[in-house]
Amino acid sequence: MENYTQAPPEGLWEAVEAGLPVRTAGFPWMWALAGVAAVVLAVVLLWRPAEPSVKYAPAEAVSQLVPPSEEILPLASLDQNDKGTTHLAQKDEETATIVLDDTDSVLSAPSVIQSDSEESYASEDSLPLAPLGQDDKEAAPLGQTDEETAPVNQKDNTRPERIDIVRQKTGGPVITASLIAGGIPGSAATTFDTYGMSTVANKGPASVRMAPVALLSRNRPTTNEVRHSVAMRVGALFNLSFNEHWGVETGLQLSNLQTQTKSVTGDMTLVSDKTISYLGIPLLAVYTPVRLGNFAFYTSAGPMFEYGFRSFGKEESYIGKERMTQDKTGGREQDAIWSLGLNLGAQWMIWDLGGLFIQPGLSWHLAGQGNNETFYTAHPVSFAISTGFRFTF
Amino acid sequence: MSEKELARLVGDGDPRGQRELYLRYAGLLTAVASRYLQDKDQVKDVLQDAFIRIFDRIGSFRYRGEGSLRAWMSRIVANGALQVLRQENRLLPVREIPDTLLDEDPEVDAVPMDVLQDMISRLPDGYRTVFNLFVFEQMKHKEIALLLGIKENSSASQLLRAKALLAKEIKEYRKNV
């Protein structure tokens, strides 16, 4: 008789079809966000800051080495060597380096250079501070008409015997990659339900499985204790800095959301433990207002899309202390959730490779989403602390 | 298409898979619901809710071999029917059987399936529920007792009474054939 069939009631399929959720094409947010993340990653990996280049050094750049009272001759364009600088002296070890930015402003220039030998300037092997581009040893030095003398710092009577002028492009993109780890401790909510299939069976994450307990309650109160938590959160993020202050961050983040339920009716207990894994793609704007030495303080904000793709767990029932049933649960999930995040962070650059960071932040998970009751539905606004290591390359 | 492939197709939300699942199992699940409920409208309501729940929760279904999908769906239908019976307080035990018939097992081989189905559906609610859970859902008395909120020996005695009533029905049928 177990294979016995009967004609289904008339109109059953139409009634079932009418009760199914409407499938809309919907915008493929997951794919769109993944595409944006891929573009950002491609830019991060392919875009390299321009090499330092030397085009010319305006007179002001040299003025720090030359007393203001001295006449300064304009300089011609430099010929670039393979390092992008022009060495004016071949022999000596004393070098003054002037660094210019995109606007020809001087970023750095030494004010005093010690020279071991006052005669090094007059050496045939060393070039005078002639107009740049010239290798004529007989060329007049900058600011001087007398070939016997060189620009001299009036204060200490020293002079640089070699000047490297380097054009450094500032504001170029800086690439960082970070690994994060963290979690959010759980919170418990206890509810008391009186007997009735309609009340107990429709509440809580294990509503279907709680039906046997409800059937047994027979007007006895049922106590439900539900605890939600973010058991684990790890991720790999990439940050693209456009300039000293602004950047964008994206990557992948895996979160395990755990829900533990305990339902007690008299001496009957139903216990369930379910974990849902969510894969998230954040897209954050990052602003760094303050850098103090090796420390940087920043803030970031933006949306994140998370997709719950699998669940696993177990369910057990007890009468008294005797376990009656034990089942493993789990399988594929299809749960999509959007959230907005706001973070504050502090980073300590340990070495050139990167540094440690700590980042507390708030997340707001939009209401009416998802098919499961999780930490996100119980606590739409939540506080979390992420820590990790940020690689710079 | 195998049961496993069908479950995966439905799990992806494919409307064709849903239709295929319905066409393949609607008759079987209708028979399951009819074993618990006599009212045709209640049978239809239970089946409608069951199919919607099946399509909604098939993502969490774990395939455990041929027949596991059918067993899972049958359990969902049975639970839905039990919920109706429970809400109408129709799961109380019945004591109407003469003791002289308690030792006889029903001889079902000579009885057509549709006749037997009809006999089962006419059993009192409490007997019919225990009979269906024990015979068709293959639950143990301990599990039936947990599910229905009765004692384990009550489940056993109600199964015995259900079998006795069926035996009586079958005897009368064979006399009239």
Task: Describe the main β-sheet of chain B briefly.
Answer: none
Number of E-state strands of chain A: 11
Number of helices of chain A: 6
Portion in helices of chain A = 10-25%
- How much beta of chain A, percentage-wise? over 45%
Derived from helix and strand composition plus strand pairing, the structural class of chain A reads: mainly beta
Largest interface: A-B, 40 and 44 residues
Q: What proportion of the residues of chain B form beta strands (DSSP E)?
A: under 5%
Looking at the overall shape, the CATH architecture of the largest domain in chain A is Beta Barrel
CATH topology of the largest domain in chain B: Rna Polymerase Sigma Factor, Chain: A
Architecture blueprint of SSEs:
The complex is a heterodimer of chains A (393) and B (177).
Chain A: H1 12-19, H2 29-46, H3 59-63, E1 96-100, E2 106-108, E3 163-167, E4 174-193, H4 197-200, H5 211-217, E5 222-241, E6 246-265, E7 268-292, E8 295-319, E9 322-351, E10 354-365, H6 375-378, E11 381-392
Parallel strand pairs in A: 1-3
Antiparallel strand pairs in A: 1-2, 4-5, 4-11, 5-6, 6-7, 7-8, 8-9, 9-10, 10-11
Chain B: H1 3-11, H2 15-36, H3 40-57, H4 68-87, H5 113-121, H6 125-135, H7 141-148, H8 152-176
Helix pairs in contact in B: 1-2, 2-3, 2-4, 2-5, 3-4, 6-8, 7-8
